Amino acid sequence: MVRHFPIDSTVCAILIGSTFLVFLTLVALGLRCWGRYYNGTKLYWDDYLAILSSAQGVAILVIQGMWSTMGEGLPFAAVNRNNLVMTKMLLIVFELLYATCTATIKFSVLFFYLRIFSVQVGSTLGKLVQCALAFVTLWTVGNLLQVYLICTPFEASYDDEFVGACGNRIASYIGIGAFNVVADFAIMSLPMSVIWSLQIDRSSKIGLTVVFFLGFITTGISLVRMISLPRDLELSNLTQSMVWPVFWTTLEVHISILCINVPTLAYVLRYFTNPRGARSVASDPMPASPGPLRSVQGRRQTGMDFELDLFTPSSGSGPQRHSFPSGRPNQYGTRATCEAVSPAEPVAPEEGVQVTQDRTVQYMRAGRLAALSH
What we know:
Blueprint: H1 9-38, H2 45-68, H3 81-117, H4 124-149, E1 151-152, E2 165-166, H5 169-189, H6 192-195, H7 202-212, H8 215-232, H9 238-241, H10 243-261, H11 266-273, H12 275-283, E3 308-313, E4 320-324, E5 338-342, E6 359-365, E7 368-373
Antiparallel strand pairs: 1-2, 3-6, 4-5, 6-7
Helix pairs in contact: 1-2, 1-10, 2-3, 2-10, 3-4, 3-10, 4-5, 5-8, 8-10, 11-12
């Protein structure tokens, strides 16, 4: 029978911190879903994957809590055999959750790119995203296989009474972490060429770059985790040495979940800073007045809302016409025929479009970048 021990003070502090992080991730996820609901838009694949990753993060916290009462932080010799077997069995589940959760987070980011940039299959960015999806899929399959194949027979991975052969588990953890760092950097770099090609000022480009590079926080934690594993983790004294490696692993997961929700909270921030303006956008994502443009069909959008809006001074001379596709939504939620004219001189508004001259508005919305003038 599994015996329960008093919680070690260090383990207790780490568990409290992890619980607080999970609370923050759930709040961020709730605001993300609320923003979708309030704006009248449907959830997309990146939203569903974010929900799934949050559920996996909660499961990781539950395992962390179970370990805390089973002898985590105590010397190996002070823990009975049943606790050791259960600890190692939970470690296998923990590894599976880590592999699937990190993959779910990466898939969420990639589908987020597909939505806000309306990536076409044959485009350069589309091909890069497809390659990234394939890489993450293969990487995840390899992670899952190593959990089952690291020891022969499999029972030897959690019960020392089984005679078998096991590979270097710490080396496998470090290898997984290294691939994780490379994958994170590659995925974060994908939209940079699109962002820096936008017709906006440099400070706005830098701001967007910072938002998309929030994942570097996770990369830094991954590097610390890779350093901690060979230094702190001793499988022969697992219960006492697992405290800090488990902390860095859970911290990496929870910060990653938090980071994927931050770029989607632009609408929520706009609501709290300007509730009336947010309400008008929510009631009509393409408002007739006041606002930069009106849908030609006059229909309310039912797809994805815009994520970011960037205001920059108008530049250049001569009329500039910007349009984006309409009609039935494509696979990324793009819809509604709209057109805006940026004139050198004031002109009479076209049907369905209100035109002024002072500022140019770029909306990243409905999976499409639309440059407008008002």
